[in-house]
UniProtKB/TrEMBL annotation:
Matches recorded under SUPFAM superfamilies: TPR-like (SSF48452)
Organism field: Streptomyces gilvifuscus
Protein name: Tetratricopeptide repeat protein
InterPro entries: TPR-like_helical_dom_sf
Species lineage: Bacteria, Bacillati, Actinomycetota, Actinomycetes, Kitasatosporales
Location of the region described as Disordered in the Swiss-Prot/TrEMBL record: 96-137
Domain of life: Bacteria
Amino acid sequence: MASSEVTSSQPMPARPTRPNLAFRRLRGRRSPAEFAAAVRRAAREIGERVSCDARYVGRVEAGEIRCPNYAYERVFLHMFPGRTLTDLGFAPRSSVRGRRAHADEDAPPAPPASRAAATGETPGAQEPYDTQNHETYDDFEESDVLRRAFMTGGATVAAASLGPIGPAFDAAAAGRPVRRAGTSHAHALEEAVRRIRLLDDRHGADGLYRRASLPLRAAYALLDAGATRQATADRLHSGAGELAISVGWLAHDSGRFDDARSHYAEALATARMTGDDGLEAHAFCNTAFLARDAGRPREAVRAAQAAQRVGRSVGSARLMSLLALREAGGWAGLADRTGCEQALARAQVLYERGPSDADPEWMSFYGEAELEGLEAQCWSTLGDWPRAARHARRAAQLQDPHFTRNIALYTAELADDLARGGRPDEAADAGMRVLDLLDQVQSSRVQTMLAGTARVLLPHRRATGVSGFLERHASVPRTA
């Protein structure tokens, strides 16, 4: 318990952080993003919900999180049986319980009174962690501010969960005056980006896009309000840019290409205003993908090459690998097999250099499955159906179960490649597997691919399983 001598007029002195070397050793050769994915998998195994990502892992290893909240504690002890929190490099919970955040602009909001009344929790008594400048609450994972904003579940619940993000966002979105933004606002903005990405991974974009405009509008209102510290302002700009890309992707995946183009352009402008090379590379990366899907392959090549020029400064081989794949997709759209093969080869070489701490947080989706899936799309565009099918099958087999939407996408790609390659029975079987996922995934991209496969299979109704697939596909409601 904090000493009674510590009062609001006598703030607790900052405590220098110590790197958590024990936790870093446990991560081993995995990148922060790969380790974060392992944490999320372990959480699902025991029925927990955590939004662990590369940034959280970095904060733990830097010593900023002295003791995890209870959900993370259960997950970590499940991952490393026989060890205690101390063995994992954390401070005993008794040594941090009860510390209060400084009452300044950087302090995250206390739990709402309604939650305190419902749970018996004392406001301000959540588990904290030490940062280099002040003590604050442990990772909004337990914060009602975000828990009520981003619940998980079915696609309908996911869409509804993009409601209010918290007091700061609510005020900004409603057009009410917002005071200078602090690090708590930056935390909330970054968490909004993570939760949108997690929900998209599980459910696809169609049920999320319309709801996502609220946090984006609030993010830019917070930028207009300004921040007293440059570091906070930089985080707000980066977070707003990443959120614009995430919302743009929701528009992109749900077939709203003009909206997506606008959001990506907004992110690109934000990146250039602040000199954020990583954000600029991300915006160009998504612009290239959109141009390919919109039938502008030459623009896709140019945008991917621009992304590679600015992305070199990030120092991530995995980022450069993904950008090479974006370029390959453009060359495929131009029917330039040689250009496509050269870009694919470059992407493979860069990927094999392995993960690094420089890999951007947003690239947590990019693993071997995505590499295979994007290569499958290239071969499909070039009309090499057997080769495309091999890569699509491998992508679906390799995909982490967390990425439900991608499993549906790769399997839909497989079904289409098999159908066009003259294997209707196998195509119907793969199509059935996609239909099984549509109660969890709402993606216009997946539905459009499946509709194309159904058209290709129409002349093959008598092949094994085709009639059943066509009848079931015809009964599936289409996303508005």
